[in-house]
Each structure stands twice: as structure tokens, then as C-alpha cells.
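Per your request, structure below.
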């Protein structure tokens, strides 16, 4: 029940948010992706006047399962992910390529360019990539249900080099296979079905650590959290 309530807190479902002022709508989004220090401290979701949400929060309890299909000790399902190489050619890789005989960190974000993902989650792994690799990590990959064009633009925008691979799970195949989908269709922000935020450590394709967040929250899926358990 607590888990269900947290999901309902994340899923600010009222379509009337559309009619809110830009400032409020931005605040709603930023509290949803609880990044924005300034905005979320000024205006959190709970501080929004209740009259802006005349309808009760609605979400499907049947679909809002908190646990993923995958858990520690499981072998990762295989899936194909795509990216643009430095020469601009579209390439594909597989979960198996990324993890076989390797120590790999895979982390996922609800969306490229969204506040927490851009300001904290990805930059944290870029910053700590040397430390993580010094601890024996071979692969650090960021996965998002975005297409490869968007992932390339995000990589360029954040000036990421080869510290972290930015991989597109555009059709959501891997995300679905591990049961980490996050259905944001109720949100006016237009994200559709994305991935919950997580960071996992896999050794030879077997999950050793799984830090799976409730939706877009960012509490224990950062680079520091993985560094601690290496
Ligand atoms: C996502 O949620 C919407 C309702 O908000 C529902 O219509 C849709 O079927 C859901 N999609 C998936 C893939 O669960």
C-alpha cells in the first residue's frame, strides 16, 4: 500500500494541469522528476493548491506493480540497443555484448533531457566513471526509452565522451523484459511509456545489485550508490 501511494504521488494524473500556468506546470514536472533544486524547493507538488486538482489522482493498481520482473541473481534478458558511433553511423549492441565476461553497470532514466536525468543521474556516472572503472567496471551504459537520435543529441548536449555509453531502447524491449516500464501516459508532459530509473550492476550478465527507483525518483540509483557496493 505504501508503495502504491508513492506511485500515486509520482503519477500526478490530473489533466487539468494543462490549464495551469507555465510556472506551475514546470514545477509539476520538476517535482515529478525530483531534480530541480530551486523549483522543487519553491513549489513542490504537495504545495500546489488543491483546487487545481479537482479530480482524485487516478492510476491503475493492477498495472502499478512496484517490483520488476528481474531481481538480484537473475541473468539479464538479451535485447538489442542502438546508438550513433562518433562517425555518425547507427550501430547496435546487445545486452549480452555489454555484459558477457564483464562487470557492467547499466542505469536507466525516464527520459533524455528531463531534469533529474540531465542534471544529476547521467552526469554523476560521467563524473565517477574513472573511479568505477578503477574498481574493475568494464562497461557503464545509460539506457533510455528514447530513439538513437535523441540519445546522440543528449550526449552532445552534455558533452559526454566515452565515459558512459548512451544507448537507445527506443521500442522499450529491454525495459519491458526486465519489468521496469513506467507508464506516464497520464501526464501532460507527453512521455508515454518509459523506464523507471534504476542502476544495476551485472557480472557476466547476472544481476548482482539492483537499485530500482519508484518511477522517476532519484534516491539510491546514483553513481555513488554503486561505487559503495563495488
Ligand atoms: C498506460 O496508461 C494508459 C492510461 O493512462 C493506458 O491507456 C495505457 O494502456 C497504458 N499503457 C500500457 C502499455 O500499459
Amino acid at each position: 500500500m505504501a508503495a502504491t501511494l508513492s506511485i500515486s504521488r509520482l503519477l500526478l494524473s490530473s489533466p487539468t494541469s494543462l490549464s495551469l500556468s507555465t510556472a506551475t506546470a514546470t514545477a509539476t514536472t520538476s517535482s515529478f522528476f525530483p531534480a530541480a533544486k530551486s523549483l522543487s524547493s519553491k513549489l513542490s507538488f504537495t504545495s500546489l493548491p488543491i483546487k487545481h486538482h479537482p479530480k482524485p489522482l487516478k492510476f491503475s493498481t493492477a498495472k502499478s506493480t512496484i517490483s520488476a520482473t528481474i531481481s538480484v541473481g537473475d541473468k539479464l534478458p538479451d535485447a538489442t540497443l542502438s546508438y550513433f558511433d562518433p562517425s555518425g553511423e547507427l550501430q547496435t549492441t546487445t545486452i549480452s555484448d555489454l555484459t558477457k565476461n564483464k562487470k557492467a553497470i547499466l542505469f536507466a532514466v525516464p527520459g533524455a533531457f528531463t531534469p533529474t536525468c540531465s542534471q544529476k543521474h547521467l552526469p554523476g556516472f560521467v563524473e565517477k566513471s574513472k573511479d568505477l572503472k578503477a574498481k574493475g567496471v568494464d562497461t557503464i551504459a545509460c539506457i533510455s526509452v528514447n530513439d538513437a537520435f535523441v540519445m546522440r543529441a543528449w550526449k552532445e548536449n552534455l558533452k559526454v565522451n566515452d565515459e558512459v555509453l548512451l544507448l537507445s531502447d527506443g521500442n522499450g524491449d529491454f525495459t519491458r523484459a526486465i519489468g521496469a516500464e513506467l507508464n506516464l501516459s497520464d501526464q501532460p508532459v507527453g512521455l508515454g511509456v518509459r523506464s523507471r530509473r534504476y542502476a544495476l550492476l551485472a557480472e557476466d550478465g547476472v544481476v548482482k545489485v539492483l537499485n530500482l527507483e519508484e518511477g522517476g525518483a532519484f534516491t539510491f540509483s546514483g553513481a555513488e550508490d554503486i561505487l559503495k557496493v563495488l
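The beta strands are 80-84, 90-94, 103-109, 139-144, 165-168, 181-183, 193-195, 198-203, 206-212.

Regards,
D.
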